Each structure stands twice: as C-alpha cells, then as structure tokens.
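Standup notes
- DV: blocked on the single-chain target, sequence here:
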Amino acid sequence: MKNLKWIIGLVILVIVGYTIFNGSESAPKQDNAAYTQQLQNARKEKDEFFKTGKESPIEDKAAFKGLPYFEIDPTWKVLGKIDKVKSGQKFEIQMTGGETETYEPYGNISFEKEGKKVSLKIFINSEGMLFLPFKDLTSGKETYGAGRYIDLDPKNEKDSQIEIDFNLAYHPFCAYNHTFTCPLPPAENLIPMAVTAGEKL
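- DV (later): unblocked, structure below
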C-alpha cells in the first residue's frame, strides 16, 4: 500500500516537473528570469501538495513550512547522450525496505560537467517516463543519504540526446517518512561531484 502511495505521489511530481521542463527546454539561455519563475511556481505547487495532499509523505503538516532547495542554477542543465539497451531487459533495484523491485533499463546516459565525464543507468517506468536515480557528494550531508531522483520525458529525446535539469532533482518520499519504501540508486549511479541543485534537506 505504501508503494502504491509513493507511485501516486511520484506521478504528481512528474507532472509538475515536466511542466517546467517542457517550458524551459526551448527557451533561450538569456531567458533565465522566466525559467526561474517557472521553477519557483512549481515548487510552491509542490509545497502546497505536501502540506495539504492526502498522499503527502509529511506527517506533521501543520508544522510544514516548505521544502528547502539549493539556489536555482541554470548551469546544472546538462545535455545527456543516451546509449539505449535492448528493450525488455530486467534490472533488480534494491529498495529501502530491504526487498528488491524489477525495473526495465532504458540505457546509459552520459554527460560532461566541470571537466568530468559521468555515465549513469536510466530506467523506464510503467508510466513510460524515464527514471534517473542518483547519488552524489552531497548525499548524506546536504541531501538524503539514499539519493535523489530526476524524471525525464522520452518525447524530449532528440538524436539520442536529452536535457537533464538537476534543478528538478527531488527526494523520494522515504526521505520524509520512514513508512514509505523507495528504490535506491544502483552503485554505478554515483556522480563524483557535489550536485548543488534541486531539493536538499
């Protein structure tokens, strides 16, 4: 049941996140003000859901004042190259509750940031969205130790490339409520730098 609640909540986050993503993907680089405003508006909507939504993971909603974030930084929008794998493959992902769940790999997505090359496994979920779980050097310090997630719309993939906006990185529900069970990023999805974008604790 908790897994079902987590999935429902995740769908809501996907809708919010991709409203921003689709709005910003074609925007010129100098239009950072509009991008920032879109992101701030979406964060307000998410805070409202966390404070009032029936599927919210927040237990003490009366005391909830909103989620903390890193400063919005457009330089954390990177272009990732996707090396797809044959469809129908299976990959067992460890869950925070100790069990495993089966995910379908979509491929490996690679990008370069701060002179470092990064390659991560990316999956496709039952809603047809791309799911990118990751950890980085903020994990267990400024962000949840079990990692964060980014959702991507495969419709935005062009010529095996897709934009990854780490300002949309979010925590799983289990970061806020231990009764939820969430997938852990595979060991190879550790980014060897501090991703100072998106949600923090």
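- Follow-up: The first strand starts at residue 77 and ends at 84.
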